[in-house]
Amino acid sequence: MSAAERLDRLRDAAAERADGADAEAYAAALEEVARAEGAASWAQLAADARVSDMEPASLPEALKYALFLGRPEMVDALLARDPALGRADFGLTVALGLRADVERVLKDDPKAATRIVGIRSPILHLAFSRHAQARPDVLPDMLAIAERLVAAGADVNDSYPFQPGSDERLPALYGALCHADNLPLARWLLDQGATPDDGESLYHSTELPHLDGLRLLLRHKARPEGTNALLRALDFDRIEAVELLLEHGADPDAGRGGDIPDFPALHQAARRGRGAEFATLLVSNGADPTRLHDGQSAATMARIHGNRRFARALAGLAPPPEAGSAAARLVAVAEGNGAARADLTDLSRGGPAEGLVTRLAALPDARDLMGRYLDAGLAHDETDDMGLSPVQIAGWNGLAGHVADLLDRGPGLMRVNLFGGGLVDTILHGAENCPDAEGRDHAACLSVALGAGAPVYEDELAAPIPEHLRRVIRTALDRNPDQLRPKAERPEPGSSG
């Protein structure tokens, strides 16, 4: 019996112990089983099992991924199996913060400080390592390693392509601050001359669960103008981040620069469901409430997206949409004026309806509004710029009611977005990455998606996914084993199946 098969038997034992109770009881049962097996936790037991089934040649790459993704149990399991693994290559040595080993290598081979290991230079392996999240005691060693690397020629502004051949590059500062949430290392890089205006860090610092990273960049004179950092900050319901950017020169009426179409901040806040206080803040900082985007004022866009609080804050500051226009027809449906007899079929593509359903699929309070638009003829299976369909977006956001409603309309269950995800793994990804995951129900999303026949691929089950979600999948596969497909059958990214 393989370790993975034995682990499944232990999962079954935990499920019997929980006796159909909720996810919290199942998690407690898993921990009891793990302790009975002599493990510190279920997560560690599962990691040990995965590692024991791995081929020796695959261990170094597995450790790289574990450090990059922040999987401390996998790091511990891999090093327990092979304590020398951290010295398999210089990138791993650096990412683990093995200071003495780094100093020994650099003494014998100073050029190792700048030599590419895999796809990243050593300073990038250090910056993108999440090891310090679980092991904060290693931070002093990581900072000392950074000093040694730079002294030997490493560049604090080094970067690597986001994808092979891509012009978009991910710099060391972005890695330390926004990927690894390693503020001490990010501060050190800035103090050594890393540019805060690297095209990535300011934007992504608004995604962190705190404002420390944003404040750090602004203290080092990061310039919000010409970036889309303000628009990204408006994706989240944290007015303090918006205030900081405005205080440091962000222009709410400026374009994002480059080839990205101009999009005013007031309109962004309107369609993202922000409250009236955001409207007041933006207008008081120069946002023009009469400005039109795609023929709509921000107040009209708010009404189309069901954001009445925002629209009321702008009442009287801009004229209503022209009677009979596409925007006016959408507003009528949004506000229930003649919605039962409305026909918006001709608006499914282009104009103010472009991308509307995909945006509403991400908004918790927009379920009924989305349904009214779909009843009136807007397309239920349109995709956004990254190939995500409304049901995938709702699933990523853990909005089970939205998912159920969209599945009732028969979307393509074989669709694979440009990230390479189908419906099931998009839900799984959202469970671990959605900023509001704690208040959502990804298990219910997964259950209803599997009940509708969404396929599961073998590589999804091989990944380290949350156990309560794995239980949902295994229960569904027990009912319908044919739902499990080989990895080779997964459609190509961007395919509708």
From TrEMBL:
SUPFAM superfamilies linked to this entry: Ankyrin repeat
Gene3D superfamilies: Ankyrin repeat-containing domain (1.25.40.20)
This protein's record includes keyword Nucleotide-binding: no
Pfam families attached to this UniProt entry: Ank_2
Signal peptide (residue range): none
Keyword GTP-binding: no
Start and stop residues of the ANK repeats: 225-257
A GO BP entry: regulation of barbed-end actin filament capping
Region (Disordered): 477-497
Entry GO CC: cytoplasm
SMART domains cross-referenced by the UniProt entry: ANK
Keywords linked to the UniProt accession: ANK repeat, Repeat
Entry protein name: Ankyrin repeat domain-containing protein
Organism: Oceanomicrobium pacificus
